[in-house]
Amino acid sequence: MERMVFEDVRAFSPRHIFECGQAFRWNADGDGYTGVAGGVAAKVGFVPDAGGREGGSVVVSGDNLEGAEDGEGRRGRGFWEHYLDLGRDYTAVNEALSEGDEAMARAVAFGEGIRILNQDPWESLISFIVSQNSHIPRIKGCIESLCLRFGGAVGAFGGREYRAFPGVEALAGLSEGDLAPCRLGYRAGYIVGAAGQVAARGGMRFLASLRGADLDEAERALLSLCGVGPKVAACVLLFGLGRTECFPVDVWVGRAMGALYGIDGNDRKAVLKYARARFGAHAGIAQQYIFHYMRNAAGARA
């Protein structure tokens, strides 16, 4: 089994990263989380430094870590460093977000160690279409069913066989009936429709082109896809295209912004205007802290 160790990492919590609602193929596995990324199965854990020092080592283990790759030319160690966002100084980001903001300071402290995963944009697109009007256990079940039926094999890990997320062409060639066993409901039509549109526009090249596009232009391109509304578009931009200035707004986040900042949570434009002005380039990171805090902190709900 291969093992990659990234030392001297601060602000990294596998539990908060993989259970904050940004990715759906990772599951708790003893002292870490096991899932699939870059076309390989792996386990991600964190070992704190001895002696009470702040920080520690991120440990990635698997049978084919060097085989992991993305559409941007990153492979092996470079892939995992980018996927886990290890190049960003989250200590500095957290300090900037918390300065003069008691509500955000509480959210950051509660979700200490959250990082934004740099996920595949196609997987993010389909995953967040699936996520609409659903809850995380059901979302994970539907996505796993999609992978088992239509994704290519990536090998065994920990005594279990894993499969990759199905590509654009694989889903574009399906009908709603083909997706019936995945129990996607009305979302099956959205997935077939979006897959066909993305395939017709150049597949992964189309999605990759949105990384450097004007943000409004990129959002409009995503909104033109079947089943994509403002919240799904923002999630794809944030989690799949690295646009950390994006601030996805759903019911939870609207309520949270109302509770924490006194904004009308039903007024999406007002929420976005405030978030962009207050959090700037780190708005998406702030959103994850807020979302995680308000969904899980009993004190916050009270």
Q: How would you summarize the topology of this molecule?
A:
Elements lengths: L1 E8 L4 H5 L8 E3 L2 E6 L2 E9 L7 E7 L13 H8 L6 H9 L3 H9 L10 H10 L5 H15 L2 E5 L2 E4 L4 H5 L14 H14 L3 H5 L6 H9 L6 H11 L10 H11 L6 H12 L3 H14 L1 H4 L1
Antiparallel strand pairs: 1-5, 2-3, 3-4, 4-5, 6-7
Helix pairs in contact: 3-4, 4-14, 5-11, 10-11, 12-14
Structural description of this entry:
47% of the residues lie in helices and 14% in strands. The longest helix is centred in the middle third of the chain and has 15 residues, at 136-150. The protein folds into three domains: 2-87, TATA-Binding Protein; 121-240, Hypothetical protein, domain 2 (Endonuclease III, domain 1), CATH 1.10.340.30; 251-301, no CATH class. It is built from 15 helices and seven strands. By secondary structure, it is an alpha+beta fold. The strands form two sheets. The protein has a five-stranded antiparallel β-sheet.
